[in-house]
Here is the input.
Amino acid sequence: MVDVTRIVIIGGGPGGYEAALVAAQLGAEVTVVDRDGLGGSAVLTDCVPSKTLIATAEVMTTFDSSYEELGIIVADDTPPVDSPARVVGVDLGKVNRRVKRLAIAQSHDITQSVTRAGVTVLRGRGRLGAGGQAVDGSREVLVDAPDGSVQSLRADAVLIATGAHPRELPDAQPDGERILTWTQVYDLEELPRELVVVGSGVTGAEFAGAYQALGSRVTLVSSRDRVLPGEDPDAAEVLEEVFRRRGMNVMGRSRAESVKRIGDTVEVTLSDGTVVEGTHCLMAVGSIPNTAEMGLEEAGVKLNDWGQIQVDRVSRTSAPGVYAAGDCTGVFMLASVAAMQGRIAMYHALGDAVQPLNLKTVASNVFTDPEIATVGYTAADVECGTMDAVEVKLPLRGNPRAKMQGIRDGFVKLFCRPGTGIVVGGVVVAPRASELIHSISLAVDANLTVEQVASAFTVYPSVSGSTAEAARQLHIRKRESGES
Ligand SMILES: Cc1cc2nc3c(=O)[nH]c(=O)nc-3n(C[C@H](O)[C@H](O)[C@H](O)COP(=O)(O)OP(=O)(O)OC[C@H]3O[C@@H](n4cnc5c(N)ncnc54)[C@H](O)[C@@H]3O)c2cc1C
Here is the structure.
């Protein structure tokens, strides 16, 4: 008789459901326990809803920012270029209904494909049993079902993929109407007239840009010198410049202390006493891992000071037989990384060939307009000496396709090793940068040289032509410095 490995996965987001699919394909008996619905926060409240909202915003910005230049006539009384008068508007209730419909449909599709693969899905809250590892090496997972019953499961390996939830400030409690987290904005029927976004990381910047495009007057409160402190500085500078040019009030070095609702308005008080008023406030001040009251520490799973589960590059925790993936580990808070960590955990647990997680090949994107896509080593790595690399940055205003499309902002930046010319990273700031980064991502993953990137055909005219041109310029730089 063949032994079947029992896998229990707590959390059905990308970290959990992708792992479940892999484990089922490898012949394991798999159970996923999820509290809210498969797809997790990624599908139900975070990634999918925000990108669906941004899809509407993107059409609005593309139109608003280029129709004049491209010769489009909207009405007899088309406003002059600098006029704040808008030519298109948005029905936010309709947009939000579409957002929710798509999210639920995607969760449904995932549930179908997971159950079709033979995975058992249980609705409830999962936690580790108090008993630690049994003599046969298995672990107990307890499931608190919505009806109050508790079910006990035994597993040869457990994967924790419980994600994270929005962080709240004690003096800025969300009410779901005027003071909102990013999970609550989809209940709005009307566009916020004046939206104050607190937090200028990726989530804050994406929502600030989106609501401004949809027609809100936006103030972005950033505690740092500039928006997107974790991104490429040149890219952040372009975005901040674009935000300001479009009329956003970007307040740098301003820390929000409290947010109060007063009737139909909100007052955001900053640490220097300044009060910023608006009709709504969106809090985007980070997230907290869902790791509390799960019996983790009792089972020997080490957490760091932020409550994130500590894992190695094959997703093992400090407790034998317990793996963790995704936002609850805080390794790199992206759906793609969560999914990869989950798959890696299953390859490892089930004895399949496994490649440890390599964060230096992760491609990520900020879905603003323009988008900012990044892969591999960054300017910060070069500056602090983690990587010895040379860079070339080509502004898009020199790109023929960009000129035709009326695109003025953005660039392609490429980093390569000075001696070998191997491409180690890149940044694209452009509309649809998320699509354009793939060639650089491929080059980084496959250790391609700038010569190889330069020799591949690109379409003329195309924005991706700038990637090949950047590679050619890096090749010339290498020749001039006598390195080839
Ligand atoms: C606004 C926003 C936009 C984003 N956009 C992108 C993007 O465009 N691209 C990208 O790659 N990433 C994006 N992210 C990040 C991405 O959403 C996360 O990295 C991803 O959701 C992590 O997946 P996960 O599986 O770790 O957790 P989640 O998706 O959070 O899923 C965890 C699941 O576990 C469940 N759960 C929690 N505790 C328990 C328990 N005890 N028992 C049972 N179930 C439990 C939760 O209910 C949830 O269903 C975005 C994040 C935010 C906040």
